[in-house]
What we know:
It is a single chain. The chain is of the alpha+beta class. It has two domains: 2-60; 69-243, no CATH class. It has helices at 2-20, 29-66, 153-161, 170-175, 183-189, 192-201, 228-243, and strands at residues 69-74, 96-104, 107-115, 129-136, 145-149, 176-179, 206-209, 213-217. The chain has an eight-stranded antiparallel sheet, sandwiched between helices. A hairpin with a 3-residue loop joins strand 7 (206-209) and strand 8. The longest helix is centred in the first third of the chain and has 38 residues, at 29-66.
Amino acid sequence: MILLQASLSVSLCMAAVISAASDPLPYLHPILAIAILISCGAAVLAGESIWHSRHGRALEREAQELGLSFAAEGRPFEGSNVRGLPLLQGDSSVEASNVMQTMIDGREALVFDLPSCEICETEPPHQPFTTVVAFRCPEGKMPEFEIGRKDLISKVGDALWQKAAVIEDLEFAKEFFVHCPEPKKVHDWLTPAKLAKLRSAAAPFHVSANADWILIFRPRAQILPAEIPAFLRESSRIAAALLQ
């Protein structure tokens, strides 16, 4: 609703600009147009700020109901190994918003929002934020890889890795790409049993993994508070399949 109101404000501003074109004082047109457009931009930014504030409060309430800890902002990866995780752009001090923390099946799990980054986008982002679930790898043995649906995003992986794991599960290989720096390690890790479980669980998601973390997210999607329980359940199935 807030963003709709902001859009209506922009429409009204643009109408004012057009109307200004008939003003008998043409030298005022550029000044008036600039002032109106600045006001439009401010209205949109204010609307987005209010929406994100309300979204954060709703997530905090949802976290309390689920028994999760919540912080409006945080640096959940500080001091850890984030190599090979493009969403974090190699920065362990990356700041996240709406950070929720819990334990699932004995593993630390985090849910948070990150600004949608260009590395993981193949088109302008539909959402300024992407909701991510991160699972800590307990033994630090996971190889680096990216798994996602075969579409334009796979071209990003091709440019980054220049390598792809050989997947013998033909049904999996039809739907998903697997990019990695060390194909032999990933081939050995992704056993037929794991691939069978991933094939049924991973369809809407992108998976990014290294020795310390498994990141699971839907490209260009910010999850609503009411969808967090289902998002956690689905993500935990993927993590369990990879760590079995």
